[in-house]
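Side project, low priority. Logging it here so it doesn't get lost.
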Amino acid sequence: MWQRVPLPCEKPIEYALGVIDPRFDLAEDDLLNTVASAEQPWEEVANKELFRYNPQALFKIHLLFDERQERTIEQKKLESSLLQTQTTQETLEQKQRKTLALYEAESKEYERMGASFKRRLDAYNADVEKWNAIGGAPKKEFEDLQRVLFVLEKSQQELRKKQEYVNTLVTAVNAFSDQKVALVSDYNEQVKGYVNRYGESGEFDQGDYVEQEINIYQYDDILHLRAVLVHEFGHALGLVHGVDPASIMYRLMKDQSLDPLILTAEDRSMLAAQCHQTVWDIVLERVNILKERIWSGGGARG
């Protein structure tokens, strides 16, 4: 009877791949490599083989796609959209600053040209008024006035072109502002649609270990997938949740070191305690479990 009691860590846990939903877009070889790398942290601490891949094994690892991974995919799209929005905004901001600087320079030039034109026009009108007051200008002076008038008309045309250009720059500066507002509005609409569909972010199970199978529901990337697998492998070894947020066996994946993946002192201690159990420890634990079931279930009936 004692020999039939299996000891933790005594024999490698053999596993195989089960249902792999194609929507995870993860090749089987990549998944196998990731699972193999998830064995290493525990095996390095135990200094022995704890897991072994066997395509015929009854213990299965599944990747099950549901709203949790769908939410992750949509969240990544939002993050990509935010990055694109920020990049585009920075580009628009740079262009707007350059256009605004050009507008300010051209506006000052327009004001200078306008002031110069006004002075020359006033002088021309004064000369015309002077000669008209005495009955007209002599031929030479009249021809000089005509030449001045011709130059003034050319200057006026240049002034109008400059004014049109300045107005174009004003329109461009305002257009950049409109584009930036539209970008933010479009991103906010995407966020609103995400929240309406999935609600606010909250806690959820990324994976679970049920006897003879590990189910993975959500991961952000390969490093994150490896961490979730390491966590579930811990459960497969018989480990419970830890209390240290940095532990791989903590109930949430948040504060753990993923690259490199580091087992904390708590993780190591729990593994050591589990792997060093004796047959007597296991039998005693089973007896205690049986006693609890009797007292909570049939004990009251006597």
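Brief comment: The chain has six helices and five strands.
Revisit when time allows.
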